[in-house]
From TrEMBL, chains A, B:
<dbReference type="GO" id="GO:0003700">
    <property type="term" value="F:DNA-binding transcription factor activity"/>
</dbReference>
<feature type="domain" description="HTH lysR-type">
    <location>
        <begin position="1"/>
        <end position="58"/>
    </location>
</feature>
<dbReference type="InterPro" id="IPR036390">
    <property type="entry name" value="WH_DNA-bd_sf"/>
</dbReference>
<dbReference type="InterPro" id="IPR000847">
    <property type="entry name" value="LysR_HTH_N"/>
</dbReference>
<dbReference type="InterPro" id="IPR036388">
    <property type="entry name" value="WH-like_DNA-bd_sf"/>
</dbReference>
<protein>
    <submittedName>
        <fullName>LysR family transcriptional regulator</fullName>
    </submittedName>
</protein>
<dbReference type="Pfam" id="PF00126">
    <property type="entry name" value="HTH_1"/>
</dbReference>
<dbReference type="GO" id="GO:0032993">
    <property type="term" value="C:protein-DNA complex"/>
</dbReference>
<dbReference type="InterPro" id="IPR005119">
    <property type="entry name" value="LysR_subst-bd"/>
</dbReference>
<keyword id="KW-0804">Transcription</keyword>
<keyword id="KW-0238">DNA-binding</keyword>
<comment type="similarity">
    <text>Belongs to the LysR transcriptional regulatory family.</text>
</comment>
<keyword id="KW-0805">Transcription regulation</keyword>
<dbReference type="GO" id="GO:0003677">
    <property type="term" value="F:DNA binding"/>
</dbReference>
<dbReference type="Pfam" id="PF03466">
    <property type="entry name" value="LysR_substrate"/>
</dbReference>
DNA sequence: CTTCTCAATACCTTTCCGGTATACCCATGG
DNA sequence: CCATGGGTATACCGGAAAGGTATTGAGAAG
């Protein structure tokens, strides 16, 4: 029992005769006659009663007719489904991102555009800091991530630079500095600082620290927060001041925190990248990469 | 996309390599390699990533794997279902019968045995008199019937003689005849009779009437009943007496009716037959016919 | 570096499929 | 009663497709 034979069979049933079916499927009548007979033989049953003016279904033939249509339909559906999968029109895509970056206009635009254009894809966004993102990317648990990376991605990963973040100083409203920002960071050597764990985002912290050291500034950490939200909450509570990414400062409005821009912090550039495993050939990912490139070139034009 | 290719594909997936699959399906490895490639081409997609130590499914390959199993399973089910249909192990069978005949031991045994042996068959019994049964049989609305037929069945029908019914006289308990049966029917020429419609069972009535006429007895009908139950109810009500089949008399115990056997009525033979359209090739019917023959030959042995 | 495994390629043989020509069957109509 | 026209079945041929053997090529393991 073969798909071809089933197609012929259905044609014969619907045309009521081999000759009619022969015209419909563009196959000569004797070939059809033979295939129908082979089908009957392989099933060990009689599907038609032959008359001089056509073929009439037997009871078991009628049963096969319904099943044959189902089988043929399902084959079509399988083919269509695979094509959709292969074009990245269906399937799944998992993306890691640090929640504060969701507020960046280009990121919001990117994710919104993807969800809209590829609405058949199960698109999952995982809120993760850069460190865990990198780990899961390398383990293959994540298709893509939006995270802080050095300009050249680690081995096995590919990336696109989405945005260069700068730094900003967050001080408690109660602090005298809230009203009068210092000219230089070196004036803050005696202040209490709230800091984050290096493992949460190694690239970020290494770059921040080396930048600050170059300026002759050695902050004194008194508290550690798990992420920027936690750090800023501590600042609001007056536990100290903090250096955070500008994007986190812009997106996170917390009562009791005053943000201060400083030239020395503006000069520190934090590359925020879209990254994925180079050997991940998922079509949904390919579409996402294409969309990233598209968005980036639009961005270029805009400037 | 072909069933054969799907089988090969599944084998390759489950063995993890073309070579393994080749051993499993008893087809040389290059042939398999080629079929897999053809499958990929026909779907326009990559199903495996080739490694030196085997083949690994791609995402779309994994999707096809599940669908392929489904398709192959369904093919098997279709084949099995057709085989069952063809053996008469499933399907449907409709049978007409006059309800009073359900009490005949041989009929009860026959229907019970069929239902038990072919429990996958949708077996429907329609309570119908002989006339309507014949009509529906000829129209193909009924697969078989148990009805009064002449010894040779009408054109287009085949039959087996199941049983020879005789006649019996039913009189109201209130009648003086209930206590003293007459020797001859001719003594009843002046009695009121309850009769049935010829169309309900033409063969039956024609035979009964010709038999009675031969005996010089011309009953005077005063009431007509739709079936034997109705006729006997009228007898019970004292509206008259009736001649009914012995089987109806034995099965239908109605208060107020006394049954009288008479030699002249015993001699009238009513052939009760199992009948079907000769051109009906339903396997369920074929099994029923075989069962009838089986039962009849058992019956013969018993005597 | 050798060896082993496995996939890919080349080439041949066989099988299967479709096409043409024709026989056959039956219903219809002159 | 025979011709005709619809249909199916059979015979036979050519080409395409599938399978087999032998061999090459590419990695992984020893």
């Amino acid at each position: 029992m073969d798909f071809r034979q089933l197609q012929y069979f259905v044609a014969v049933v619907e045309e009521g005769s081999v000759s009619g079916a022969s015209r419909r499927v563009h196959v000569a009548q004797p070939a059809l006659t033979r295939q129908i007979k082979l089908l009957e033989d392989s099933l060990g049953t009689q599907l038609f009663t032959r008359h001089s003016q056509g073929m009439q279904l037997t009871i078991t033939g009628r049963a096969l007719y319904e099943d044959a249509q189902d089988l043929l339909d399902q084959r079509q559906q399988v083919i269509a489904r695979l094509a959709a999968l292969d074009n990245g029109l269906s399937g799944k895509l998992s993306l890691g991102i640090t929640v504060t970056h969701l507020w960046l206009p280009m990121v919001a635009e990117l994710l919104g555009a993807y969800r809209k254009r590829y609405n058949g894809v199960a698109f999952e966004v995982f809120p993760l800091l850069s460190g865990p993102q990198l780990e899961r990317l390398q383990q293959g648990k994540l298709d893509a991530g939006i995270l802080y990376l050095d300009d050249e991605a680690p081995a096995g990963l590919s990336s696109r630079l989405l945005h260069r973040d700068s730094l900003i100083l967050a001080v408690p409203e109660s602090s005298p500095l809230a009203e009068a920002a210092p000219n230089s960071l070196s004036a803050l050597n005696d202040e209490d600082f709230v800091w984050g764990a290096r493992s949460a985002s190694p690239v970020y912290y290494d770059r921040v620290l080396s930048h600050l050291h170059r300026l002759g500034f050695n902050p004194r950490p008194v508290q550690y927060g798990a992420d920027n939200i936690a750090i800023l909450s501590m600042v609001a509570a007056g536990l100290g001041m903090a250096v955070v990414p500008a994007s986190a400062g812009e997106s996170t409005v917390i009562p009791g925190v005053r943000y201060l821009r400083m030239k020395e912090l503006d000069e520190c550039s934090m590359p925020l990248c879209f990254a994925w495993r180079s050997d991940n050939d998922s079509p949904t990912l390919a579409n996402m990469i294409a969309l990233v490139d598209e968005t980036l070139s639009l961005e270029m034009d805009r400037k």
